Amino acid sequence: MSGDLSLNINIKEPRWDQGTFMGRAKHFFMVTDPRNVLLSSETLEEARVTVENYRAGIVRPGLTEDELWRAKYIYDSAFHPDTGEKMFVIGRMSAQVPMNMSITGCMLTFYRTTPAVVFWQWVNQSFNAVVNYTNRSGDAPITVNQLGAAYVSATTGAVVTALSLKSLAVRLPPIVSRFVPFAAVAAANCINIPFMRQRELKYGIPVTDENGNRLGESANAAKQAIVQVVVSRIGMAVPAMAIPPVIMNALEKRAFMKRFPILNAPVQVGLVGLCLVFATPLCCALFPQKSSMRVTSLEEDLQEKIKQISPHTTTVYFNKGL
């Protein structure tokens, strides 16, 4: 009977082994699936109810294991893992491909003039700010002032970096100029993510034992989490911002592209999208979502606290964010 679905399925964890890159890749191909952006509020709510009921030991009649996992991945794509709140739609990882292919494609197409560089870097960092806030680690709120200061700092840093690199690239071959947006994005990620998550660096993020019992908050864990996210984000940008410029540099010398220059932007956006479909989940999979750290690497006061409340714990776990 369908009502006999086992209650022993661990949907607190991903369906595939997160100890392997392939298992994490399968997981993130599901989480970053762009089709999830198109799901209705009713579908998201139905998935939320299915998941929360199952966790409470309530199984909907007729529910199959595949349907349960599908509901779990719909839930994961739209609800924050720590707070449980529904995430802003363009901040979800499932929106990464459609949003980034549009923004990155335009950055790579309109890079020749200063106003265009400023505008598209501002758009990109505004989008990144939304993504970084939406996918932050932990459940502590960030104030409007903190959010505003982080946004202004990150956006200013990105624009200044892009303009500086653009001025340096003037004396270099045209192909080099095409890589200015990538260099600016890589540098901006190193600024944007720490700024948008500065509260975590100051107050720490929740760390738990292997059973999910909260042991405290650690700034050291936050540092590790943010470094991993920065590396992943830069990795996502490499194929999308390094491969299309080389292809476009060759295509623009062709007669048909010279005859129809209007094709430049849509072709560029399409190439970026193709790269991002694979780069986004594969780079998210570089590090486990549930990251870990030895207790001996934590702050001394937290080490003492853990020795008192959980003396056998040698490793703690935390959500690194995305």
TrEMBL record:
Its main location: mitochondrion. One of its GO terms (cellular component) is mitochondrial inner membrane. The chain crosses the membrane at residues 175-195, 225-247, 267-287. It is a multi-pass membrane protein. Keywords: Amino-acid transport, Membrane, Mitochondrion, Transmembrane, Transmembrane helix, Transport. Coiled coil: none annotated. GO terms for molecular function: monoatomic ion transmembrane transporter activity. It catalyses: L-serine(in) = L-serine(out). GO terms for biological process: serine import into mitochondrion. PANTHER family: SIDEROFLEXIN (PTHR11153), SIDEROFLEXIN-3 (PTHR11153:SF20). Mitochondrial serine transporter that mediates transport of serine into mitochondria, an important step of the one-carbon metabolism pathway. Mitochondrial serine is converted to glycine and formate, which then exits to the cytosol where it is used to generate the charged folates that serve as one-carbon donors. This is Sidoreflexin.
